[in-house]
Amino acid sequence: MVILSEKGGEAFASAQGVYVDWRERATSFETVAGAYNTGMILSGVEQARRVSVGAVSHDFFDVLGVRPVLGRPISRDEDQPGRASVALLGAEFWRSEFSGNPNVLGRTLVLNGKIFTVTGVIPDGFRFAHFGAIDVWVPMAANRNSRGGGNVVAIGRLARASPGKPPRRKWTRSCNRSAASTWRTRGRMLW
């Protein structure tokens, strides 16, 4: 697994549009997944409050080898702008908000005024990098036109090499094309 960064490791993050470019152009990877963390207001409960949210690509948990303990992960179709909103619960949040009820699938949450349908529960103790504990995981639905700022952490799973051949090294060339067309920075691989 490789963590990708536009800035050579300073922030480990890129703009959503740059992440989409990397995902589409990288040939040395089986897949490039993305994620960012944020906070949202959980309402429709006894007392509205801010919860930690991880917005992830549909293949994020697969790249990390994580399977929901209940339900299913986010699908490719759900990870598109404007699609139905689904959510996976962190195990701690599931226990505190839903008393660990296995019938939670299909229930709804209201986050920032938007309704999300629960489709799964992530294993107890799962943490990603510097995100810390996440209460709710939702589809990232990356916006290819978002070129400013940068909050997406991209992780890639290297493609398997053919027997007797090393993996191809086309990453730098495709990254540089993407970066030149956006921020005039240089894409790098961080091992």
Protein architecture, described:
α1 runs antiparallel to α4 (171-180). With 191 residues, the chain is α+β, with helices and mostly antiparallel strands. It has helices spanning 16-25, 60-64, 91-98, 171-180; strands at 2-5, 29-43, 49-56, 70-71, 86-89, 108-111, 114-121, 136-139, 153-158, 188-190. 17% of the residues lie in helices and 30% in strands. Mean pLDDT is 80; it is low at 169-191. The radius of gyration is 17 Å and the shape is globular.
In brief:
With 191 residues, the protein is of the alpha+beta class. It is 17% helix and 30% strand. The chain is globular, with a radius of gyration of 17 Å.
- Give the radius of gyration: 17 Å
Question: How many structural domains can be distinguished in the coordinates?
Answer: 1
Unreliable residue stretches: 169-191
Our measurement of the CA-to-CA distance between the termini, rounded to an integer number of angstroms, reads 8 Å
Helix/sheet category: alpha+beta
Helical coverage, percent range: 10-25%
Global geometry? globular
Furnish the topology, listing elements before pairings:
Elements: E1 2-5, H1 16-25, E2 29-43, E3 49-56, H2 60-64, E4 70-71, E5 86-89, H3 91-98, E6 108-111, E7 114-121, E8 136-139, E9 153-158, H4 171-180, E10 188-190
Parallel strand pairs: 3-8, 5-7
Antiparallel strand pairs: 1-9, 1-10, 2-3, 2-6, 2-9, 4-7, 5-8, 6-7
